[in-house]
Amino acid sequence: MAAAALGLSLLIAQSALAFNLVKYLGAAYLVYLGIRMLTRKEPSVEAKQVRAQGARRAFMEGIMVEAMNVKTALFFLAFLPQFTTPEASLAPQLALLGCICVAMNTFVDVLAVFGADRLLQSNAARVTRARLLTRLSGCTMMTLGVFLALARRES
Predict the structure, then answer these.
(1) Which residue of 53, 85, 112, 149 could cross-link 27, Cys pair, CB 3.0 to 4.6 Å?
(2) Residues near 29 by Cβ (< 8 Å), separated by ≥ 6?
């Protein structure tokens, strides 16, 4: 988010070639991830006990993972500039949009953790649930990749 707010996104926004390159590479990567999920062997559904490390450590590890995740930076570079207005300063707009995006993603992640915890508490139909979730995730990734590739850039 910081890189986008500091103006790297402006370079991509000003260059149709760079924008399309990032867009199509991102779309291809999403389709690849979806195909990989659909074609992989059945995952082991045996849940192992994990020792709790504490909320603070989990929070800090999450920040480190996202800060070093190239996909996160590419997302902010490709997605956020579409929602800015040229009349206002770009950096504050990108910072605000990035913060809103991070807050929404955090909320969804917390919901996903609670949902996964609930699903893992029951042993009944665990294999079927795991297979269904993997297939659904793969199809979702491929669909998002296709939609991204077909999206038109508004001038």
Answers:
(1) 149
(2) 71, 145
